[in-house]
Specification:
mainly alpha; 5 helices
């Protein structure tokens, strides 16, 4: 049964995040007016508006997204699946081409290979 689970995705719980939003037109208008007045005062004084806050936040989010996108636990499972499928296809083609000697070599060579491969770990 575990062998079949290699070819299916494991179920995951669904996440539901609900953040209620409240719209207050008076508060929004007040904030927009305040921002506009600050910009006008800054222009009158000859000061530059501080846009570096936005740039650094954007650059930081790109950097964080790049870290998240690098391989995760799913990539190793995908590689194992690909290896098993590739082995089965090659074995099937070899069986059609050469017949029973492939079966004998499979049961003789593969256990010897795994024995020598994992012998040093113990």
């Amino acid at each position: 049964m575990k062998f079949l689970s290699l070819f299916t995705k494991a179920p995951q719980h669904q996440r539901f995040n609900y953040a209620p939003r409240y719209y207050d037109p008076i508060k929004e208008e007040l904030e927009e007016r305040e921002i506009r007045i600050k910009q006008e005062l800054a222009r009158e004084r000859g000061e530059q508006l501080d846009e570096s806050k936005h740039r650094s936040r954007i650059a930081g989010s790109f950097h964080a997204a790049r870290k998240r996108s690098k391989g995760g636990p799913g990539t190793s499972a995908t590689m194992i699946r690909l290896g098993i499928i590739l082995f089965m296809v090659v074995f099937f083609i070899a069986y059609l081409e050469f017949g029973r000697p492939v079966l004998y070599s499979l049961f003789a060579v593969v256990p010897i290979y795994f024995y020598f491969r994992f012998k040093n770990r113990q």
